[in-house]
Write a structure and sequence with these properties.
By secondary structure, the chain is an all-beta fold. Helices cover 0% and strands 56% of the residues.
Amino acid sequence: MRSTRISLSPERPWLSRASVAQTGRGPSGQCEFAGARYIGTNYDETGTLKVPQKTLFDAMVAYTQGSWRFAVNAANITDQRYNASCLARGDCFYGPRRSIVGSARYRF
């Protein structure tokens, strides 16, 4: 029996993260995060068109003060341009470019 892989899915995806958390006195504190995402080689639905592997880097900084939490998240911080997937007919689709998102949250 021959096994087949699901099309458009990487062969060996993995995620590696390292984080550092610093907390101040009481409920306030700061937290930093950095990580690498490896996306393995994938193929179109016929298994003939190869999409190369890639590694992307992400980061986050957050600060909590009382009921407030402020954070900045960045994905693909090196703004790497890459093909995320391709179809057998030749259409290829780029993965998301760099994104930076800020947020503020209040807990009642």
